[in-house]
Amino acid sequence: MSNLPATNETATSPSDPNQSPPKNPKDCLPCRIVGATALVGTGLYGLGAARPGKPGSPLERRIMGVVGVGFILAGIGRAIF
């Protein structure tokens, strides 16, 4: 057992029917960093697959480019908001 004082979050059980969940929960900073990095990395992979030298039709490469940009924007949004 730790010697830290109990807070409201740890003192109440999650099965308490009178306690409502927080209105706007926030993730911890490491969770946000890992999530944003994973999204941006996936987006960069998509952009790499969309390069002109890669195999596939122009439509497939264009779709991968749009998906890649979408993941990068989602990663930036995850880091900021």
TrEMBL record:
Biased composition (Polar residues): 1-18
Entries under Pfam families matching the protein: DMAC1_Dmo2 (PF15055)
Segments forming domain Distal membrane-arm assembly complex protein 1-like: 27-75
UniProtKB keywords: Membrane, Transmembrane, Transmembrane helix
Keyword hit for Ligase: no
Keyword Membrane: yes
Membrane-spanning ranges: 33-50, 62-80
Residue span of region Disordered: 1-27
Protein's name according to its UniProt entry: Distal membrane-arm assembly complex protein 1-like domain-containing protein
